[in-house]
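Inputs:
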Amino acid sequence: MTDLTQLNLADARDGLAKKEFSAVELTQAHIDRVAASAALNAYVLETPEKALDMAAASDAKIAAGEARPLEGLPIGVKDLFCTKDVRTTACSNILGDFTPPYESTVTQNLWADGAVMLGKLNNDEFAMGSSNETSRFGPVVNPWKTGDTQLVPGGSSGGSSAAVAARLGIAATATDTGGSIRQPAAFTGTVGLKPTYGRCSRWGIVAFASSLDQAGPITHTVRDAAMMLNSMASFDKRDTTSVERDVPDYEAALTGNIKGLRVGIPQEYRVDNMPAEIEKLWQQGIEWLKAAGAEIVDVSLPHTKYALPAYYIIAPAEASSNLARYDGVRYGARQQGVDIDDMYAQTRAAGFGDEVKRRVMIGTYALSAGYYDAYYVKALQVRRLIAEDFTKAYEKCDVLLTPTTPSAAFELGKNVEDPLEMYLNDVFTVTVNLAGLPGISVPAGLDASGLPLGLQLIGKAFGEEELLRTAAVLEEATGFDAQPQDWWSA
Amino acid sequence: MAEKNNLISGATGDWEIVLGLEVHAQIDSNAKLFSGASTEFGAEPNAQVSLVDAAMPGMLPVINWFCVEQAVRTGLGLKAQINNYSVFDRKNYFYPDLPQGYQISQFQQPIVGTGAIEIDLADGEVKEIGIERLHLEQDAGKSLHDQHPNMSYVDLNRSGVALMEIVSDPDMRSAAEAQAYVKKLRAILRYLGTCDGNMEQGSLRADVNVSVRKPGDPLGTRCEIKNVNSIRFIGQAIEYEARRQVDLIEDGGTVEQQTRLFDPKSGETRAMRSKEEAHDYRYFPDPDLLPLEFTQEFVDEIAKDLPELPDDKKARFINDYGLTPYDAGVLVGEAENAAFFEAAAEGQDPKAVANMVIGSVFAGLNKADLDIGDSPVSAAQVGQLVGLIADDTVSGRSAKEVFELMFEDGPDQGKDPAVIIEEKGLKQVTDTGAIEAAVDEVIAANPDKVAQAKERPKMAGWFVGQVMQATGGKANPQAVNQLVLSKLGLD
Amino acid sequence: MSVDEKMVRRIANLARIGVTDDEVPALAKELSAIIGFVEQLSELDTDGVKPLTSAVDAKIRGREDVVTDGGYAEDVLANAPEKDDAYFAVPKVVE
């Protein structure tokens, strides 16, 4: 039998349908591989028994001819998604062994469509980070490496990107607040889709910054991303920011035809010190889309440079409030204190890592009396200008093409001491969150040292069909099929 | 202009009290403001808590639209500006019974803007108290500090219950005015059905802002007395706090702006120990909730069904029924009382009905500690009894007895007054022959008294009393009086 | 604007994050660097620009006034670090 972990989601679905293998076999292959891949630290909790139970149920469904869209397909879940009776920590010490008595809407949708849960995936603590080095469970290691140098898998969904790249799950759920799906996808040669804000329910996902957070998949292919989004997306009455809108068949949108599509190239994304390789790859992307019949248009997003500073006010401000519930009263790890305020201070000092503390404090500062207008309101005004930049650009084009990141994956530990340097990773992705738009990173090539690089496509609000269609054409043109060499299996 | 009688005197002269109230009124709703958990009072601890109320990770608020309606209804009842666009903000602070670490409230853009309430003062004057705003917010849970020597216990049943915070202008100048304001506000809320006004259960609580100044001076520094939960305590707290501030200033001190607690046992206020560092609540728009928007039609629809409010009802009682402002005021204090009166007054003399409702019904209920809804005597029966007095079927004196019998029997027996009069033989005697016989009998039996009466005509009253007694109170008193006078030759 | 040590203590206290004396100088430096970075925003003239709080173009939805939730105190208390009977228990609060 071929190695079942080499299959992508669509192929595995077809194989199951043709009964070439069973869901239990497919799942067991992944469980075994996960068990042998501890060196990557991608999973923070493995749930093999649950996975096999779910797979067996899927086999029964398939046998009965009642297969659902993701029947029997084993995936990993970012530890930001609450999973009923399965420990959920957002990779923060402060959550202790929190075991939710509820299931997030997005994961519930996936299980309802037959997907199988392999376990919970590592991420930056509370999704705050761009390298997956702030997790309480330690850093995730990128399966890609240069020589002996260990690299970060990107963040915050580093467990998700590493797991998919290392084939420790056919797909993974992830979340994206400033680039946390797309940047790790770019660093690992995988596809990462951040849907429009409001497309997927946020109910049951540990909140980082409520007005920016959005769930999406990390997958091997654009088709797989479409399949995952078909299930993950839904209108949810329990999240009033989820949009009441039918979920189209995203897979059916992949027609391969983008003739006449207007692709905008935002000049402001040519940032200083951008590596020539990335510039070159971007140019290559333009050529590929042009060759596929798209029309290339130069557009301007004049406020791009202000997106990161605005983001680093808005996201921490919301986070400072969202994380106030971690107080050691109702759940999580409490530290003893001499009185109630001391208990809070000790609990939060011990429970939060350095990056989370920094952001909570920055957010607290930005909202505090005397600074609110200068920082928070100002950032929201800039947010509007950024959103309006996109509105204007979309008068001239249908999708935008940009690099996903300003560099390939970097060395573990390289930016840990310098938060600002770390923040710059999100320079191309963060505008999309501020404007609430969908974006996708597609692996487009390798750099000189053999590391994957990604190109990002940005769509109109709820323009996921067009976005995915374009991404699939780009994916086809790149011919990208590189895989990391397995150095980690035990 | 300071009203002289409201001033309190100190060593350095008279002082004026300035009062503003923030009333927290629990919205009468089945479910909480942002979750589907019940608001029922008195459940087991944490039994009425949803995952949202407990602020579990990833939980999101969804607004209960009925609570929005209730806030709009209240705003209309306060003749206030309704804002078709308002915003929910987060008020950030840490407290064990505040699960989210923030309270969802409305800060810069509340659902209801300025309005006014008229209060009735003791001298019959009416004073208008400005309403600054009304906003929607979540209640916190309950902390119990007295169950364990070194722990506090937290029950989240109240967490997330919908409140309206109704903020007055600093228009009140005495404890009595503040009390009248709360009573009036409570009556309006009850009329509207937006809050049950039950202060014992915490459905209505007031934060009282107190400051003092020399008449004509600018406003003094205020202290806020938190969560005072009865009208009597509001009065006591204000009296104490105003006196404390006057004494403090006159002793050369200055009033510090602070939050204080009222202790009903001692009747004193004291500064709270837990200080919110300079009250930096870091309000910002709640990103989990879109702005609260509704159409003018939505407001108009609610306005259409607004009930008659206490002021309008009082005016109508005075105009249509000819009641005194005092009686009308007493009757409209509770919507149920007013309705009882109106039902009883149907086809009867309204003033006589008002007297019986206030004098007999309310007094009886008060004594028996019953609500008007549980009155053993129905409104119809009160009306019948008033009618039976008016047509001389029963004397006023016997009517009292009839009323008491009906009250004791209770609604189960439900005997109408006519039946009781018949059964007990309380029918008024208007037959002059029978009365005359009784009068003659009394006169014949008391020749000495007759002699005295000739000297002192006031003695006639004694004869009337004797006759009434002899007839068991059933004789028509006017007829007895007339006959006694004529037989004694005093007319 | 830089964040001085006094400000670090103030915001740490507001955020209820215990900081030791040793940590304060480093935090002041890090937070100042971040604030310095975001201060580029002041270059932009945003007079008259309405703040954008949400990117979602939708209207608020409400729920009906029906009791649909609660009644599971055990679940609510299941993860509590300390509880007594059906109450959460915390170090005593003095009001």
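The longest strand of chain A covers residues 439-446. Flag for discussion at group meeting.
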